[in-house]
């Protein structure tokens, strides 16, 4: 068989003349998506907690190197604070949505607990079970300032509940003699317990049954039931 004559190399100008585009250099590195990285960090803290989540875990989940993590977020502690805020902004609407649109306080609380049963068990999207804020033990792990961040977030739930119940008193739905702070704490305690049970594997139907029993307690304390 006759060997073919070797083709001489061409430079870029020759290639362009021949109609062949020159070889391209390496493409631009993909831009860092800070929001996407924060979402991944939030899910990791949500699933594992602060102390059990290592920098190596975070960099793997976020798809960045540790220098990039520190450059973007400052420290693991600062990243956790951002993650808590991101969690509240992005996911709390799953459980509080109907609460803010309900016509009565009872409907609001029922909506909150029923939506919690769905969201906490992962039925409202591909999210970890339980509530990141409720389940956080960061304060008892020796991180005092971070513990204050989650305590403040928990306290805000009681404030929201109490404010809605005070409106219900003004509207005549709840008697003025009811201890609103205690009633708000009752609702918060039920929801917190649901979060723990969801993390342990309880299903949505089980938690919805808990919500229905809790509303019997609401009715017993408030002394009224909605019209059929």
From TrEMBL:
Region (Disordered): 1-30
Keywords: DNA-binding, Transcription, Transcription regulation
Domain HTH tetR-type: 31-91
InterPro entries: DNA-bd_HTH_TetR-type_CS (IPR023772), Homeodomain-like_sf (IPR009057), HTH_TetR (IPR001647), Tet_transcr_reg_TetR-rel_C_sf (IPR036271)
Residue ranges flagged as DNA-binding region: 54-73
PANTHER family found in the cross-reference section: HTH-TYPE TRANSCRIPTIONAL REGULATOR YJDC, TRANSCRIPTIONAL REGULATORY PROTEIN
Protein name (Swiss-Prot/TrEMBL): TetR/AcrR family transcriptional regulator
Organism expressing this protein natively: Azospirillum himalayense
